């Protein structure tokens, strides 16, 4: 681990807290363009541990309908990486919660990987999740740049990921491992099933060096609770997007959502 | 005409799936095991003599290969060069797509897959996939943009008649790009027993290479047939339309390393390259990543994919295969942007001159002929990728 990463908010978080961490995803510029900071502030006030901000993309293949629609709406609202960084600029005067950006590689490539990492550092983003950036390509081409700016690259594993690949991903990851709960896109899973538990147990028994958060299908207290028994916490996405759409972005509404998950 | 599917050119894909700067496998981890399983096995599977025997037998007895190489005399006269048409429209199911679906079906079987998912634009790949699924008794799910389902209704009915489930893709532009997104999602949700038959030379490695190999039967036959007809295997030009570019990859394959043969790709300019309603990828695009590979892509400054447009449902794709991006980038290929009107006119012209109604996709390739500055002595092979029956409702609006 480099010196820069020891000061990373995500790494600091996991050194302080190892149980029942809640990471909540929302799409930047959704429901309205200017909502990014409102939602971020709301999530911090509601006590979430990590916030994952979606960088909207026209073709988010790993996501389901809910997140795709929120991406489409955000793009329609005029959201772009440039706008997102402008919105986040200066937010660290009030926002202390660790921030991840989640999105797809093409907008990042067009922005320029170095430029992107530099901007992330400037505005206080701690890490990124880029599901379609393959690990080997990241390692050969982009890892030094990410490291230079102290930005974590969070990698995913799924029930189909082989043990040797999980070991490889664990060795090459800093921060945490994103455990995709089942073979699925986001927002398509209902509840935690038997095979999912078997997979959670299998990974738990591997004693990985990185902490793990479980995502996909975590949408209420019960699923959050179950996931937290097998990992360091969980990630909620589609359920929160639906909540924002139906109940709005007020601090009160966001607090109510987080409370139902944490209960 | 049994032969091999070995690559013969310096345009061969690298181990990591790159053609020059283009290609690779940009996929979410959810797809990694499937794509990796395919990558590790496809070359051995297709090199296996039993596979080869079954593949070539089916191409001969079921598809009806070799397809004719037809000297189009009246068209030649009109254009002022010697024009041969490679009649992929005479393949069973009406287009070249079946060469690939047979190959991938046999690969899927050997990988133990029980279900097939596919995307389709014009419906030709969907029909070809549904056909081989019926032939082999496999479950078949085809995603098709809901707009394409309307404009290519006969193909939707054909797929259903063949037992496939056709699912409308209702996101985005509701065309091929979105059907591809939905098919990839389906594969993510069903990773173990499902094989995704990509219909073009797009997608993550090894798809572009695998599909090009299955389609290379086209250029392999052209070489043999042209030798008999002209005394030379090599024409001056090979012309094909490019949406994703599978018929072009197949028609170019054995000529990639023959510099005397110019490779000509016709892209869909829609209502005009600068009209805002176009699919002319090389004219409008720049390097980017879509559907698993780095290629040339129509996109905004921010890297959002631009919705393409073409009168031809098979060509309105915002990217091209990475091999084609490399052909463009390296100057090996000549790319022409053909408007809807030019394609329609070429389609009507071939119908009247030669009694062959071409698919609107293939009509784009034909329309390139009058732009190429051909000489009387030039020998040109045009890949007539599909037949126009499916496009009659579009053609009939302009009769």
Automatic annotation (TrEMBL), chain A:
The keyword Amino-acid biosynthesis applies. One of its GO terms (molecular function) is tryptophan synthase activity. The active site is at residues 52, 63. Its EC number is 4.2.1.20. Gene3D superfamilies: Aldolase class I. Keywords: Amino-acid biosynthesis, Aromatic amino acid biosynthesis, Lyase, Tryptophan biosynthesis. Coiled coil: none annotated. Pfam families: Trp_syntA. One of its GO terms (cellular component) is cytosol. It catalyses: (1S,2R)-1-C-(indol-3-yl)glycerol 3-phosphate + L-serine = D-glyceraldehyde 3-phosphate + L-tryptophan + H2O. InterPro entries: Aldolase_TIM, RibuloseP-bd_barrel, Trp_synthase_alpha_AS, Trp_synthase_suA. Pathway: Amino-acid biosynthesis; L-tryptophan biosynthesis; L-tryptophan from chorismate: step 5/5. Belongs to the TrpA family. The alpha subunit is responsible for the aldol cleavage of indoleglycerol phosphate to indole and glyceraldehyde 3-phosphate. Tetramer of two alpha and two beta chains. This is Tryptophan synthase alpha chain. The lineage of its organism: Bacteria, Pseudomonadati, Bacteroidota, Cytophagia, Cytophagales. The gene is trpA.
UniProtKB/TrEMBL annotation, chain B:
Residues 64-386 form the Tryptophan synthase beta chain-like PALP domain. Its EC number is 4.2.1.20. Keywords: Amino-acid biosynthesis, Aromatic amino acid biosynthesis, Lyase, Pyridoxal phosphate, Tryptophan biosynthesis. It catalyses: (1S,2R)-1-C-(indol-3-yl)glycerol 3-phosphate + L-serine = D-glyceraldehyde 3-phosphate + L-tryptophan + H2O. It is an enzyme of class 4 (lyase). GO terms for molecular function: tryptophan synthase activity. Pathway: Amino-acid biosynthesis; L-tryptophan biosynthesis; L-tryptophan from chorismate: step 5/5. Its cofactor is pyridoxal 5'-phosphate. It holds the Pfam family PALP. The modification N6-(pyridoxal phosphate)lysine is found at residue 97. It comes from the Bacteria. InterPro entries: Trp_synth_b_CS, Trp_synth_beta, Trp_synth_beta/beta-like, TrpB-like_PALP, TrpB-like_PALP_sf. GO terms for cellular component: cytoplasm. Tetramer of two alpha and two beta chains. Belongs to the TrpB family. The beta subunit is responsible for the synthesis of L-tryptophan from indole and L-serine. This is Tryptophan synthase beta chain. It comes from Spirosoma endbachense.
């Amino acid at each position: 681990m480099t010196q820069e990463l020891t000061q990373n908010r995500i790494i600091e978080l996991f050194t302080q807290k190892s149980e029942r961490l809640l990471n909540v995803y929302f799409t930047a510029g959704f429901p309205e363009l200017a909502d990014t900071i409102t939602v971020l502030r709301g999530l911090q006030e509601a006590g979430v541990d990590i916030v994952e901000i979606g960088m909207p993309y026209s073709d988010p293949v790993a996501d389901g309908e809910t997140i795709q629609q929120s991406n489409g709406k955000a793009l329609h609202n005029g959201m772009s990486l440039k706008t997102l960084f402008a919105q986040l600029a200066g937010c660290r005067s009030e926002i202390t919660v660790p921030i991840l950006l989640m999105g797809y590689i093409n907008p990042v490539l067009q922005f320029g990987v170095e430029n992107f990492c530099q901007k992330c550092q400037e505005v206080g983003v701690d890490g990124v999740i880029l599901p379609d950036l393959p690990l080997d390509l990241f390692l050969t081409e982009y890892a030094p740049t990410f490291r230079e700016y102290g930005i974590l690259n969070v990698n995913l594993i799924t029930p189909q990921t082989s043990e040797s690949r999980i070991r490889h991903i664990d060795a090459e990851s800093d921060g945490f491992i994103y455990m995709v709960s089942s073979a699925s896109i986001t927002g398509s899973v209902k509840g935690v099933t038997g095979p999912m538990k078997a997979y959670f147990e299998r990974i738990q028994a591997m004693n990985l060096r990185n902490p793990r958060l479980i995502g996909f299908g975590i949408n209420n207290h019960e699923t959050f609770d179950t996931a937290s028994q097998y990992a360091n916490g969980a990630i909620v996405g589609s359920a929160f997007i639906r909540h924002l759409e139906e109940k709005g972005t007020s601090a009160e509404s966001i607090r109510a959502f987080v409370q139902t998950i944490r209960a | 005409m049994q032969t091999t599917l070995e690559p013969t050119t310096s345009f061969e894909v690298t181990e990591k799936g790159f053609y020059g700067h283009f290609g690779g496998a940009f996929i979410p981890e959810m797809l990694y095991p499937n794509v990796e399983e395919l990558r590790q096995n496809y070359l051995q599977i297709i090199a296996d003599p039993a596979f080869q025997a079954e593949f070539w037998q089916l191409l001969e007895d079921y598809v009806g290969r070799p397809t004719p190489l037809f000297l189009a005399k009246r068209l030649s006269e009109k254009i002022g060069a010697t024009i041969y048409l490679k009649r992929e429209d005479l393949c069973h199911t009406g287009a070249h797509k079946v060469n690939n679906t047979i190959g991938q079906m046999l690969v899927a079987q050997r990988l133990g897959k029980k279900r097939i998912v596919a995307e389709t634009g014009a419906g030709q790949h969907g029909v070809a996939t549904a056909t081989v699924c019926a032939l082999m008794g496999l479950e078949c799910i085809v995603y098709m943009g809901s707009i394409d389902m309307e404009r290519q209704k006969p193909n939707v009915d054909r797929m259903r008649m063949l037992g496939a489930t056709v699912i409308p893709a209702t996101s985005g532009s509701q065309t091929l790009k979105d059907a591809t997104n939905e098919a990839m999602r389906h594969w993510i949700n069903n990773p173990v027993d499902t094989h995704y038959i990509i219909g073009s030379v797009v997608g993550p490695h090894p798809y572009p290479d695998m599909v090009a190999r299955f389609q290379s039967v086209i250029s392999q036959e052209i070489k043999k047939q042209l030798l008999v007809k002209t005394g030379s295997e090599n024409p001056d030009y090979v012309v094909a339309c490019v949406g994703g570019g599978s018929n072009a990859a197949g028609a170019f394959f054995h000529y990639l390393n023959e510099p005397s043969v110019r490779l000509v790709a016709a892209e869909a300019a829609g209502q005009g390259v600068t009209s805002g309603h176009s699919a002319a990828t090389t004219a409008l695009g720049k390097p980017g990543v879509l559907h698993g590979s780095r290629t040339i892509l129509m996109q905004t400054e921010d890297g959002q994919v631009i919705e393409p447009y073409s009168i031809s449902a098979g060509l309105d794709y915002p990217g091209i295969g990475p091999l084609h991006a490399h052909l463009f980038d390296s100057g090996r290929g000549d790319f022409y942007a053909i408007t809807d009107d030019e394609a329609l006119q070429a389609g009507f012209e071939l119908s009247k001159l030669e009694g062959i109604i071409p698919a609107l996709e293939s009509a784009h390739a034909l329309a390139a002929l009058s732009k190429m500055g051909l000489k009387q002595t030039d020998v040109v092979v045009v890949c007539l990728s599909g037949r126009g029956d499916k496009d009659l409702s579009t053609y009939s609006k302009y009769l």
